[in-house]
Design goal:
about 280 residues; mainly alpha; 13 helices; globular
Length: about 280
């Protein structure tokens, strides 16, 4: 966190973004643990890697001093969001102001040319996101006017009589959409259509939001044409086949996390509602 898909999901559904952030902690820690465990096992038994030389205490201290301002800034922003001191929108302004003070006034690592470039790139990204959101709101109003979510919800209830089957079908649909759509487009298009059906089946909207975010990310790394595979391939320079093969264990672990969330919903819901 702060996860942009969660913010967009909260904007569409009018659910608490803070609750979504809190709900993401449990599955996030679970995924981190699975990824670390798999990486250790793979490196030890299959990768043929040798351990790197341990860093000296002087190197560790130097590294900690270097990353301390960034960690402190992130902790302050996320802590402020989770404790309710400021909203996610206010957190963006606070984060920008503090980052500017840090990079210009303290670290002196940001030149005016780089600052101007960052502002310009942020402006383009923000404009693109707002255009997508505006289109999604129009799409949402249109499908509501024609009662499409209600019709789909009724059709799903007639054809699918269990939560497990509904979740399975949604997984297949989202993975298929990952072939041609990116993250925000999938969230903006599918949430207004699927959420009414999910709620009619008794699925918690906060839980469904975390499920959607994980599945959308799964869709983007699903071989053979998940969009993020091409991003990884362009950065690493590795053949696309190697990238697709390498991502499969992590995709399986993400799908396993979705299964654990379904069997044990408190993995996502315990922190925001019971802690």
């Amino acid at each position: 966190p702060p996860s942009l898909p969660m913010i967009v999901y909260g904007f569409i559904t009018e659910e608490s973004v803070i609750a979504l952030f809190l709900a993401g902690i449990g599955p996030g820690i679970f995924l981190i643990g699975l990824f670390i465990l798999f990486s250790i096992i793979y490196a030890h038994f299959f990768g043929g890697y040798t351990p790197s030389a341990p860093a000296s205490w002087q190197e560790r201290r130097r590294s900690m001093i270097k990353v301390a301002p960034t960690i402190g800034l992130a902790s302050l922003i996320l802590g402020g969001i989770y404790t309710g001191v400021f909203t996610p929108t206010e957190a963006a302004a606070v984060g920008f102001a503090l980052a500017l003070i840090l990079t210009v006034g303290i670290l002196r690592s940001l030149s005016f040319a780089n600052f101007k470039k960052a502002v310009f790139e942020a402006m383009i990204t923000t404009a693109a996101i707002l255009i997508i959101i505006a289109g999604a709101k129009i799409f949402g109003k249109a499908i509501t006017l024609y009662r499409i979510p209600q019709e789909i919800s009724m059709a799903i209830q007639m054809l699918i009589d269990s939560k497990a089957m509904f979740i399975f079908v949604v997984c297949i649909v989202l993975i298929a959409m990952g072939l041609v759509f990116e993250t925000l487009s999938m969230v903006l298009i599918m949430v207004p259509v699927l959420l009414p059906a999910a709620m009619n089946m008794g699925i918690d909207p906060i839980w469904f939001g975390i499920f959607m975010v994980i599945m959308v990310e799964c869709a983007l790394i699903t071989p053979p044409v998940g969009l993020n595979l091409y991003v990884i391939q362009s950065v690493s320079g590795a053949p696309l086949g190697d990238v697709a093969k390498g991502v499969l264990p992590f995709l399986a672990l993400m799908l396993f996390t979705v299964f654990v969330m379904y069997v044990w919903p408190d993995l996502a819901l315990y922190i925001p509602f019971k802690l």
